[in-house]
């Protein structure tokens, strides 16, 4: 869908040695790699580890678009190590493999792709250890195997359909950016908006007034506010609320 925006730039990208990969039906101009054809032809057998294992976990794994907390919008470098650490995101906030996670964030952003999708893949069978200790720490003592959680992936967020989606899909965890909760609070009240299975909301940028209004209106949903940056190296978790 986005190839039309990139196509006029192909000559300058080729001059700079930038490869263009496209997932979807072609045909495409020379020099553009059609991934679907390669995926269809690829073997399901894993290559030996020395082919795909990174030589250094601090090497670049991928680039994530960031809106520019530390400057202008840009591509932020994400290492293999940071990507692997994102596997533990949902365990850190108390989710388990029994949860159903609602995700409507853009996948070109770290919150949607690495914390959201990769976080769902990395959820262990227990989630939290005894006494509420996050699973990532408990696993140092008693290792668990990632079991994964169900992810309900929405193409875009709809405040008017959100609670209907939660009921229809059995959603228990909602990953937000602060404005999404404000959109929900600003919706007209309707019957049944407290009849849902949502137990946990986790994300960034939730204002205190919206936080209070959200819980008063929609029930005792536990909220864990986090803060981090794609190009930063520190992440904060508000476990106490």
Automatic annotation (TrEMBL):
Reaction(s) this enzyme catalyzes, per UniProt: tetracosanoate + ATP + CoA = tetracosanoyl-CoA + AMP + diphosphate; a very long-chain fatty acid + ATP + CoA = a very long-chain fatty acyl-CoA + AMP + diphosphate
Residues spanning the signal sequence: none
SUPFAM superfamilies: Acetyl-CoA synthetase-like
Ranges where the AMP-dependent synthetase/ligase domain occurs: 48-124, 143-235
Gene3D superfamilies listed in its UniProt record: N-terminal domain of ligase-like (3.40.50.12780)
Keywords of this entry: Ligase, Lipid metabolism
Cellular component, GO, one term: endoplasmic reticulum membrane
Pfam families, per the entry: AMP-binding
GO molecular function, one term: long-chain fatty acid-CoA ligase activity
Stated family: Belongs to the ATP-dependent AMP-binding enzyme family.
Protein name, UniProt field: Long-chain-fatty-acid--CoA ligase
Organism, as annotated: Tichodroma muraria
């Amino acid at each position: 869908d986005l190839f039309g925006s990139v196509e006029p730039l192909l000559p300058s990208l080729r001059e700079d040695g930038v490869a263009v990969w496209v997932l979807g039906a072609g045909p495409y101009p020379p020099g553009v790699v059609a991934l679907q054809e390669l995926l269809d032809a690829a073997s399901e057998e894993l290559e030996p580890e020395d082919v795909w294992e990174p030589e250094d976990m601090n090497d670049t794994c991928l680039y994530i678009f960031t809106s520019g907390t530390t400057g202008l919008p840009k591509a932020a470098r994400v290492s293999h190590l940071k990507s692997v650490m994102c596997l533990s995101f949902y365990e850190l906030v108390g989710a388990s493999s029994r949860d159903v996670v609602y995700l409507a964030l853009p996948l070109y952003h770290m919150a949607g792709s690495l914390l959201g999708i990769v976080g769902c893949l990395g959820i262990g069978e227990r989630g939290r250890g005894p006494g509420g200790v996050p699973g990532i720490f408990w696993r140092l003592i008693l290792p668990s195997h990632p079991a994964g959680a169900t992810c309900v992936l929405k193409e875009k967020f709809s405040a008017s359909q959100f609670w209907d989606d939660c009921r229809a899909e059995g959603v228990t965890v909602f990953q937000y950016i602060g404005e999404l909760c404000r959109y929900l609070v600003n919706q007209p009240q309707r019957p049944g908006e407290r009849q849902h299975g949502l137990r946990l909301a986790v994300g960034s940028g939730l204002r205190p007034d919206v936080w209070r209004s959200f819980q008063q209106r929609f029930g005792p949903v536990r909220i864990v506010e986090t803060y981090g940056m794609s190009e930063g190296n520190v992440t904060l978790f508000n476990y106490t609320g």
